[in-house]
Every structure is written in structure tokens, then in C-alpha cells.
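Changelog entry

Holo records now carry the ligand SMILES as an explicit input line rather than a separate metadata file. Below, a converted record for 2-acetamido-2-deoxy-beta-D-glucopyranose, shown in the new format.
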Amino acid sequence: MAKMHWILFLHILMGQGCLFTCRLYEYHFIAENKSWSEAQTYCREKYTDLAKVFDMTDMSRLRNSTQNQGEAWIGLNNNTGGNRTWHWSLPGVEYIQNDSSWNQNGRQETEPGPGNCGRKRDKLVDVSCDSTMWFICYDGMKKDNKTYLIEEYKNWTEAQSYCRYNYTDLASGLDQVDGEEIEALVKSKATPFSAWVGLFRDSWRWSDGSNSSFRYWDMQLFNDEQSNKTCAMTLLNRSGKWSSDECDKEKPFFCYDDKLILIKENKTWKEALDYCRESHRGLVSITNPYQQRWAEVRAKNASSPFVWLGLRYSCTLDLWFWVNDKLVCYEKWSREGKTEDCGRAVGMMRGGPYEWVSQRDNETYNFICSLE
Ligand SMILES: *[C@@H]1O[C@H](CO)[C@@H](O)[C@H](O)[C@H]1NC(C)=O
Ligand SMILES: *[C@@H]1O[C@H](CO)[C@@H](O)[C@H](O)[C@H]1NC(C)=O
Ligand SMILES: *[C@@H]1O[C@H](CO)[C@@H](O)[C@H](O)[C@H]1NC(C)=O
Ligand SMILES: *[C@@H]1O[C@H](CO)[C@@H](O)[C@H](O)[C@H]1NC(C)=O
Ligand SMILES: *[C@@H]1O[C@H](CO)[C@@H](O)[C@H](O)[C@H]1NC(C)=O
Ligand SMILES: *[C@@H]1O[C@H](CO)[C@@H](O)[C@H](O)[C@H]1NC(C)=O
Ligand SMILES: *[C@@H]1O[C@H](CO)[C@@H](O)[C@H](O)[C@H]1NC(C)=O
Ligand SMILES: *[C@@H]1O[C@H](CO)[C@@H](O)[C@H](O)[C@H]1NC(C)=O
Ligand SMILES: *[C@@H]1O[C@H](CO)[C@@H](O)[C@H](O)[C@H]1NC(C)=O
Ligand SMILES: *[C@@H]1O[C@H](CO)[C@@H](O)[C@H](O)[C@H]1NC(C)=O
Ligand SMILES: *[C@@H]1O[C@H](CO)[C@@H](O)[C@H](O)[C@H]1NC(C)=O
Ligand SMILES: *[C@@H]1O[C@H](CO)[C@@H](O)[C@H](O)[C@H]1NC(C)=O
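Structure line, unchanged by the conversion:
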């Protein structure tokens, strides 16, 4: 009974708690004209780095952080000497090379290549992005049968727009592209066919080294062959779409500021909590997969096998709760790690799979504070 009341109370206290999709960094628009590398230096001194953009939600937040309607630098550039790497179109799906999924000699006679976009037949092959063919969309909102073969001829960019508008994105990741559902689609046709999936390769990199695959080029203005325009900007009067320009041109710019910090000192859970409350805002809470991923990046640099999170077991209430009063709506427990006992708090593993393991709170580990 007490527990029920407490949970109800928490729900009321926090409103729609679990729907809250707070991001762990924020954007700052700097209304000073600087070259791209001056802007980078400025952001690294005053904030974390030039802005990176992870997905459409970030793009919307970035645009909302200013009234300005001009051009502004973001943290993407092409100073890689043309070294292209593969990405999946769907934000957050990491590209992992697996030679057995590819057949570089599998190009059909009619297919121009090698190119910078990936299509599937029985295997994957790179072909020119302006070839037109059927394509496979992915719908993240569906419970099963998440992939759809669209029997229309489009080039890669058009196919991506179609999928992003009508579904979620082009099919992305080997689990999906080599998975049963797509194999069934391929077999459902009497004759073999080629279809685009969400594979592309480019030579653009983020200033902070992250490998976010999200791109938002304005295809009417952007040309990936213009070799002296190697820095990216957002065009705020064109829905924030991106184009490129020569890096020594002076423009306003966006920085981003990290809101999580790893403290590389070993402390008990309580000491860590006090430390974060005094020096920052508190021990980190994780309420969605996005925040989990963001915390993983910090945990990777820890010197202890686990890092403390702000999640603790309450003996009296018999439940886990985040110390900032959020309910546990997202969970990433390791299989046998959820020991419910007095004096327990949660440590995230320092390495993959970055799962949560209940620990005695008198153990001493590194920990992650949130800044706001
Ligand atoms: C930046 O440059 C533009 C165009 O050269 C100019 O219109 C604008 O006033 C400048 N902004 C600042 C803050 O100096
Ligand atoms: C940006 O502002 C628009 C309009 O004010 C709003 O609808 C949208 O939700 C905002 N986006 C974010 C991510 O806050
Ligand atoms: C990116 O850099 C490579 C190598 O310098 C070049 O071939 C390519 O055209 C560049 N792309 C853009 C858009 O500048
Ligand atoms: C190209 O980039 C990949 C991945 O970032 C890296 O492993 C490789 O060494 C680079 N190649 C060259 C020639 O720079
Ligand atoms: C590569 O793909 C094959 C077949 O799809 C799979 O059996 C294998 O485990 C994969 N290898 C890696 C390293 O993921
Ligand atoms: C794809 O088609 C559109 C519309 O025909 C065109 O504007 C665009 O340049 C094409 N993209 C590529 C990569 O060929
Ligand atoms: C999902 O796919 C399976 C096998 O391809 C099929 O039997 C089933 O009817 C499909 N379900 C829906 C809702 O389309
Ligand atoms: C969405 O799908 C419809 C057909 O169902 C198509 O006519 C439309 O062009 C698609 N939207 C985009 C942006 O491609
Ligand atoms: C970038 O991708 C590589 C593997 O492709 C991964 O090991 C690395 O952690 C990623 N970097 C970031 C900052 O996410
Ligand atoms: C960049 O290339 C364009 C066209 O090729 C040329 O007009 C321009 O002068 C070049 N800019 C620089 C800084 O080299
Ligand atoms: C923290 O503890 C780990 C062992 O759990 C040790 O390897 C590491 O050096 C310690 N770090 C510091 C900063 O004392
Ligand atoms: C933590 O507390 C338990 C039980 O109170 C005790 O057995 C254990 O030795 C303590 N561990 C450390 C590292 O102090």
C-alpha cells in the first residue's frame, strides 16, 4: 500500500516523467563572424566543441536556439583527404564492417560503380548514388514486419527522403539488412532484383570525433564534389538544411555544451552523490536509450570497472529510484545484476555492453555527474 501511494505520488510529482526526452547537451548560437577553425577554437574554450547534430530532434533544438535566419557553421568538415567511410542512414546505427555481407564483384552490367551508396541483391554492393532502383524502407513504429519493399525507381537520395517522410528511414544495420524479414522480401519475387538500403559513404567528420551518421544536406545547393568547400554550415532560412563553404569565410556558428562529466576518482556511492550535488547538479539519471548511450561514452574512460549512476534501492519502499526523483522507466540491467537488497546502488559497466549491475554502496568507483 505504502509503495502504491509513493509511486502515485512520484507520478504526480513528475507529470509525464517517462516521456520526457531531455538531451544531455545544449546548443549555443554565437553571433560573431569567425572562420570555421576560429569558431572551433572558441567553442572548445568556452563550451565543449562546435555543434554536432545527432538526428532531426537535435536539428529542431539547434534551430530553436536562435532567431537568426542566416548561415552558421556547424562542427562538420571534410578535411579527411577524401577518405570516405560507410554509414547507415538511420541515426544511432553504427556501421560495422562484415565482409561476408558484401560482394564487391556482384555489380550487374547495368549498374554504374563503384559508388558511394549501398544496395542489396543477395549481397551488398556499392553503386553510384544516382542510379535508380527499388528500395527498402524501415518503420520503427511497427511491432513486427518493420520493413517494406517500395517498387518504385528512385535514386538513393530520393529513396531516403521517401522513407524518412512515409516511414522512419531506409533499412539500416546488418541485423536488419541480412535479417529474416528482408530475406523473405527478396525471396518473395520470382526474379532477383536490386534495392537500395540505408548505406552511404562520405568523407565528412564531426569536430568532436563522434561518428554520428546524420546528414541534412540541401541537395539543391550542396555538391559533394566541390573540393574547396570543406566546411559545413546550416542555412537557417532553408529549414536549417546544410550546405558547404570555404572554411576561411567568416560566419556566426553553433557550439554545444556537454551536460555530463566523468569524475575519475574512486568514491563510495554516498560520497559520489555528495560530490556531484556540491560541485555540479547531481549524479546522472538515465531515462531513455539516448541518455544511456551518452553515459556510455563517458563510462568508457573510467579507471574503475564500474561507474556509479544516481540509481539506488530503497529498502523501506522496496523499489529502485533515481535520486533526482525520476521513476525507473528505462532499464539496462545485466542478466543477473539486479540484486535487490539494502545498501545497494547501481554501477554501469566501464565497457560494452555497458549494463547496470547492483553493487554494495560502500564499494568505491568513478562516477558521472550531470551539470544541469
Ligand atoms: C557578420 O558579417 C555579416 C556579413 O558580412 C554582417 O552583415 C554582420 O553584421 C556581421 N555580424 C557581426 C556580429 O559582426
Ligand atoms: C522548436 O520550436 C517549435 C515551435 O516553437 C516547437 O514546435 C518544437 O517542438 C521545438 N523543438 C524542440 C526540439 O524543442
Ligand atoms: C571532400 O574532400 C575530398 C578530398 O579532398 C574531395 O574529393 C571532395 O570533393 C570534397 N567534398 C566536398 C564537398 O568538398
Ligand atoms: C580512413 O578512415 C578510416 C576510418 O576512420 C581509417 O581507419 C583509415 O586509416 C583511414 N585511411 C586513410 C588512408 O587515412
Ligand atoms: C558476419 O556476418 C556473418 C553472416 O551474416 C555472420 O555469421 C558473422 O557472425 C558476422 N561476423 C561478425 C564479426 O559480426
Ligand atoms: C536524385 O534525383 C533528384 C531528382 O531527380 C536529383 O535532384 C538529385 O540530384 C539526384 N541525386 C543523385 C545523387 O543523383
Ligand atoms: C508479416 O510477415 C509474415 C511473413 O512474411 C506474414 O505471414 C504476415 O502476414 C505479415 N504480417 C502483417 C501484419 O503484414
Ligand atoms: C510518400 O508516399 C507517397 C505514396 O504513398 C508518395 O506519393 C510520396 O511522394 C511519398 N513522400 C515522399 C516525401 O517521398
Ligand atoms: C565510432 O565508431 C566506432 C566503430 O565504428 C566505435 O568503436 C566508436 O566508439 C564510435 N565513436 C563514438 C564517439 O561513438
Ligand atoms: C574554389 O573553387 C572555385 C571554383 O572551382 C573557384 O572559383 C574559387 O576561387 C576557389 N576558391 C579558393 C579559395 O581556392
Ligand atoms: C580506482 O579503482 C580502480 C580499481 O577498482 C583502480 O584501478 C584505479 O586506479 C582507481 N582510480 C583512482 C583514480 O584511484
Ligand atoms: C561493505 O559492507 C559490507 C557489509 O556491511 C562488508 O561486508 C564489506 O566488507 C564492505 N566492503 C567494503 C569495501 O568496505
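Spot-checked after migration. The CA atoms of residues 52 and 209 lie 10 Å apart. Residues 85-202 form one domain.
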